[in-house]
Amino acid sequence: MVIHALAHILAVLLLPALLMGVLQRVKAWWSGRRGAPLLQPAFDLLRLLRKTPVYSETTTPVFRLAPWVFLTTAFGSAVFAPLLGPAALWSFHLDFVWFAYAWGLGRVAVMLAALDTGSSFEGMGAAREATFSAFLEPVFFLTAGALSLATGKTKLAELVSIHPHVMDGTGAVWLLSIGALVVVLLVESGRMPVDDPTTHLELTMVHEVMILDHSGPDLAAIQWASALKLYVGSSLLAALLNPWFDAGAPVSAVSQLALCGLIAVAIGTLESLIARLRMRTIPKFIALGLAAAALALLATAWKTQGAP
Asked: For residues 231 and 261, is the Cβ–Cβ distance under 8 A?
């Protein structure tokens, strides 16, 4: 138990930066460049931690507190995620509700900080983030509900341990849940085709425009939290895809980490080959995830009907 807890903590501390490094290296490879070292995101965080933050005279303590709330909620969600196998660091009945609203609280903190600057550009980004989040929340809860009904479990780490079978409907639940979680992962982490983390045009930004005024350790906290959310979301998706998820601690952990790396490669490839969606098209993209989640929930009726 102690070894599992230590491994879980080390994964939370080290792997988000490594996953971002893999993603950036894949994007560099697709553009014909060698790319930065895999641990460059970690070096960037250390560099930011050594800098002195600069605050506008118009901001209040909300602006200074928000990055650390965002980081705390990211850590709070990672506690319940199956990062290294089916056993999370902590779990309880219906903990996926806590998970969803931990992410929501962090998102609200960043939006309040953006509004606190008095910048019209950052306010515009906060409005977009609020709109997309309102559309995205039902996607996660419908997916969690479908997995809960299909598995008979109520804990997040157990929901994703579904064993798909075509004949009883769990295969359809499994496949549709994967599609819905892909949408959740891309929107929550601000990746293409929803948001471009490398753009410098404020009019097209969503997440990045909200953190333009952050610097030093505050910016490091936001970047670390964003990388951690990407890792946690990738772990949930990897758990659904992992055929060795229940195969025992070493095999499960190694396969889980390998699949997270492959998901980072897939995201980097996606960002290199397609353009971001137009702003008015993003709600339609989220609606695809909502439709997949709703169909997954309906597919559980097939499973229930076929049960003895």
From this structure: no
Q: Report how far residue 59's alpha carbon sits from residue 67's, in angstroms, rounded to the nearest whole number.
A: 14
> Which residue is associated with the tokens 């995205």?
136
What are the pLDDT digits (tens) for 161-189? 887 775 567 888 999 999 999 999 999 98
Do 70 and 62 meet the contact criterion of CB atoms below 8 Å apart? no
- Which amino acid, one-letter code, is at 4? H
pTM: 0.93
**Cβ atoms of 106 and 225 closer than 8 Å:** yes
Phi-psi bin for 37: left (phi > 0), alpha (psi -120 to 50), beta?
beta
The rounded distance, in Å, linking the Cα atoms of 240 and 162 is 7
Distance CA 151, CA 162 (A): 6
CA 114 – CA 137 distance, rounded (Å): 21
pLDDT tens digit sequence for 231-256: 999 999 999 999 888 877 788 889 99
